[in-house]
Every structure is written in structure tokens, then in C-alpha cells.
Amino acid sequence: MPTTLDAYRRVIGLTGPALPMLSFLGRLPVAMIQFGSVLLVAQTSGSLATGGLAACALALGQVTMGPYVGRLADRHGQRTVALRFSLLNALGIAAYTLGAILEVPVPLLLALGVIAGGTIPGIGPLARARIVPLARGASADDRLVNTALSLESTMDELSFVLGPAVVGIAAVALHPAYAFGAAAVLVAVCGSAFALHPTARTVRPGHESRATKARRPKLPRVVYVVRAGLVFVGVLLGACGAGITALTEELGQRGQAGLVYAAMGVTSAAVGLSMAALPERFGLHLRWRVATAAAVLLSLPLVWTHSMLGLYLVVTVFGGIYAPNLLTGFALTERLVPPHRLAEGMAFAVSAFVGGQAVTLAVAGRLAESYGAGAAFALGSAAAAVAFAIALIARPGRRTAPSLTAGTRRTDRQVRDRESTTSRPSP
After folding, report:
1. Best CA proximity match to 152, nearest among 277, 20, 278
2. Which residues touch 183 (CB under 8 Å, ≥6 apart)?
């Protein structure tokens, strides 16, 4: 245990204590509006299906624009891109919230949801793309890089603990719209502070040469396989979110949906932190298979859960599968994409996960309305089985060479050599 704690201390030493706090508070609004959209719109419109559609529109906006935001950050620097999108997102959330309160026509509300999702600054992926060069630049080994990614994934999970909890408390005490107002303020203030933090200079723009920009070589096939796996993990989360909302409503405890979601996230965060202690011989491919297999087994009891106590007990155990799945997906992405496309690669990984969640929110919401919460949970279990099948048949490529330190110029030959290396399959 001391070794793991020392590794986390080294990571905090690389970033400084302010950056993790700013990145956590800056990404918290994403969790608040993604889960809160279902509660907000369901309460203002009176329809769970409409709430699912609105949440789907918001998430699809994020999926569509997320990789583009990452690409802009790779090319023009994180400071400018994160600052502008943080301010735009604050305005987008405010407009979306106002539209829900005023009960504007559904097509207009969906358009506002797309705008609110499309302007998300992607602080999670940008933080990962920022911390990896810091670790590699300090001559860190893979263990420290994995610890840094574990910390990032844990902050994601903590945001998905606190975000739904804040929305749930606001829904019980006042109205979900108050939580959305807080989200707009948080992304404007903390997102801007994250953008202006000195570590933004770690990832300098312009690493991609003209020749590389012109041809943009294909990524190794396994990158797309990893993204496909993350899509179905997103389907699992979306189906569980819809199922939790439906079951709490069936039991007359709608306001507890956010708290149930938070209970699931607590376990995930704890497991995410502990993953830094895993030995190197427990490789990423094996972790991927074990994590997806656990998702299948632990999601099945949700289908037959019919009480609040049972729901809390089951999701508390089930929540432990999310951090291993997401952390492994991000770690594989870091190994396989070229350094000058890391922010874009991380953003694509997040978009794959959120994309699966987005489509499912709309489908599972209607499924739960027609056939009950168990149908939504069953959809999630089926998605977990597909994710396991993908992990089982996948053959990950060779790990990439370490990222170069900030400010180091790469020649076209270095880029070609790295890309050809990552394309070779493992022996």
C-alpha cells in the first residue's frame, strides 16, 4: 500500500494540487447535466421518454463535437480551446435549462440539448492528454502513467457520484433546475481556471508535421476495437440509468434516483483508486477481459430487483465494474495512439462511451415505460455480454513508445516509425 500511495504522491507532485481540484470541478457539470437531464425534463414535461430523448440529444452533441474539440486542442493548444468552450458551455447549459422550464416545443428543446452537449470543453480527456506528457517527461514508467490515469478515472467516477447526488438533492428539496444553474457557474469558473493553469503549456500545439497532417495515417485497428467495447459499456450505463430512474419512480421514490446513482459511483471510485496497486504482469488485455466479464455477472441481479433496499445493495456492488472498464479503455488508448493525437484519441474514447449511453437513454427510457425497469436492466446486461465478446476476441497491438517531453520536436521519420510500430500485432 505505501508504494501505491507514493505513486499517487508523485502524480500530484507532477501536476500540483490545484490542477486535480480544478479539473474535477470543471468536469462535474458534465455528470450533473447528463444524468440530470432525465430528471429535469421528465419533471417539466411529465414524460420519462421525453426526458430520455433530451438526455440523448445532449449526449449526442457531446459525442459529435468531443473529438473535434480534442483535435483543436492538439493543433492550437489546450488553453485557448478549453477557455472558449468553457464559456460557451456555460451559456449553452443556461439556455437548455431555460428551455426546459418554459416547456418549449420538444424539437427546440432537443436542439438546445445538442448545443449544451456540443459545447462541453472535454476537460476529462484534456486532463489525461496533459498529465501523460508530464509523467513521460519525468521519465516515468508505465506504472506511474497507469497511476495517473487511475487518478483521472477516479475523478470521473467521483464526479458521477457527486453530480447525480447534487441533482437528486435539488430535485427533492427544490427543483433540478437549480443544479443546472450551479453547473453553468462551475464550468464557467473552474473550466476557465483549468484552461489558464500553467500546465496547459505542457502540451504545445503544432506537433503534427505538414506531411503528417496531409496524409493522417490510419490508427491501428485495435484502437477502433477498444472504442467499440467502450460503446457497449456506455450502453450498459445508459440502460442502468434509465432502469434506476424507472424503478425509483415505480416505487414512488423518484427523488432517490440520483442518490442510488451516487451509491454506484462510490464503489466505482474506490475500485478505480485501488487499480494502481495491480501488478504489471496483470496486463491491460487481461484486465479488459476480466472487467467486461464482471460487468456481465454483476449486472444480472438488477433485472430481478424490485425494492429500494435491494436496489441500493445491488448497485453498490455492481458499481465496481465501471472504473476498471473505463480505465482499461483509456490506458489502451494512451498506448496505441500517436502522442500528437492524444487529446483527440482520449476524446474519441470518451465519445464512444457517451455515444453508447446517449442512444440507450432514448431507447431504454421507452422500454422502461412500456415493460418496466427490468427490461432496461436486461438491455444493459446484453450490452455487457457484447462488450465481453469484443474483449475476448480482440488482439491488442504493440504498446507505443513513450511520449516525448513538452516542446520536443518530432521529425516525419519519428512519426512514421512510431505509427508503424503501433500497427504491428503482439507476438
Report:
1. 20
2. 28, 29, 32, 33, 36, 93
As a whole number of angstroms, the distance between CA 113 and CA 357 comes to: 15
- In terms of Cα–Cα distance, which of 96, 61, 87, 117 is closest to 177? 96
The stretch 228-241 carries a mean pLDDT of: 90
pLDDT in tens, 16-31: 888 888 888 988 898 8
Predicted structure pTM score: 0.71
CATH superfamily of 14-204+218-423: MFS general substrate transporter like domains (1.20.1250.20)
Residue 413 CB-density burial (10 A; 0-12 exposed, 13-18 middle, 19+ buried): exposed
Angle between the 123-137 and 176-196 helix axes, to the nearest 10 degrees? Answer: 30
Is pLDDT larger for residue 342 or for residue 37? 37
CA angle at 353 for the pair 350 and 358, rounded to the nearest 5°? 115
Kindly give the interhelix angle for 221-250 and 322-336, rounded to the nearest 10 degrees.
Answer: 160
Angle at 243 between CA 241 and CA 249, to 5 degrees: 105
- The CA R_g of the chain, rounded to the nearest whole Å, is 20
Domain ranges of the chain: 14-204+218-423
Is the separation of the CB atoms in 340 and 207 below 8 Å?
Answer: yes
What is the secondary structure of 256-286 as a DSSP string? GHHHHHHHHHHHHHHHHHHGGGS-TTS-HHH
Report yes or no: 383 and 260 within 8 Å, Cβ to Cβ.
no
